[in-house]
């Protein structure tokens, strides 16, 4: 890596031992995990010392680890340098902007990691099939999917280093939860596609969804009666949804008092409980997402000339280079300021007004 043979940028979030030594020389120790390669296999993987050093130096380094003084190395560590496409040349459907029918996924998009490759592969595969069938592409949104966050980051910002999908990259974390992943899938993916992938799972999700919505409506429209109030420890007439927001709310007690709630399966029950408990925060974030979406979805004409419309030179050059299709894509281009976006929005509104007037 430091011998001049490798010139590519390495991953920021799982660097090799050479990079760690160079970047963090002040740390007095480093943890290495010895992981068995399999049951009954006399081979261990030293997790934490990935490197591309010469083999003899690797062996000498391993033998400095307490307990590994006489270790033998079966396979040395190595580095792989690979070429990538410029992600901004790819659309949100993962099809090349200039070549119809050519889709990209995996490390060639500038990512690093198994999950990143798998997420891109799913969307690229679906949209390649949709393209052949003449269907509109599946475009997920940032408030519904971490995969959408990754794709949007890549195709609007590019990747000057191996991209890892971190939760911190999402703006709407309250909406992107582990408990409601099934709900996002059900609401975002075309139902005929879900049926083809797994008819049985689709029917299960459909049942979960319908019962959860029914239960949510019941809770929102129910007020605690006198006898129920004593059991729940609230005043008569309290909205049941308000009780569900209390830290000491007991779902098992609710099921005993209200049979209408007891029919819910564990997974949608957990989703519903969280939606109700944090309703105020979640609803606020949904409104923020919707407000942003209204601006983000404003389309930018493909033939719009960015020079001479009041934009800074840097902003005009970046818009001309990345050719964002919507305001949302324009907002996420590195170096673009809120004032740049405001100028662009004003121009689009003026164009829209003139178009409708004429």
Characterize the structure shown.
It is a single chain. With 358 residues, this protein is an all-alpha fold. The protein contains 15 helices and two strands. Strands 1-2 form a two-stranded antiparallel sheet. Helix 6 packs across helix 7 (199-220) and helix 7 (199-220) packs parallel to helix 11 (266-277). The longest helix has 22 residues, at 199-220.
The radius of gyration over CA amounts to: 27 Å
Largest sheet: 2 strands, antiparallel
The domain tally reads 4
Number of helices: 15
Q: What is the topology, as strand order, of the major beta sheet? A: 1-2
Proportion of residues in extended strands: under 5%
Query: Which regions are unreliable across 5 or more consecutive residues at pLDDT < 50?
Result: none
Which secondary-structure class do the elements indicate? mainly alpha
Helix content: 40-55%
Overall 3D geometry?
globular
The CATH topology of the largest domain is: Arc Repressor Mutant, subunit A
Strand count: 2
Given this structure, which CATH class of the largest domain is correct?
Mainly Alpha
Mean pLDDT: 90
Distance between the terminal alpha carbons, to the nearest Å?
62 Å
Order of helices and strands: HEEHHHHHHHHHHHHHH
Q: Architecture of the largest domain in CATH?
A: Orthogonal Bundle
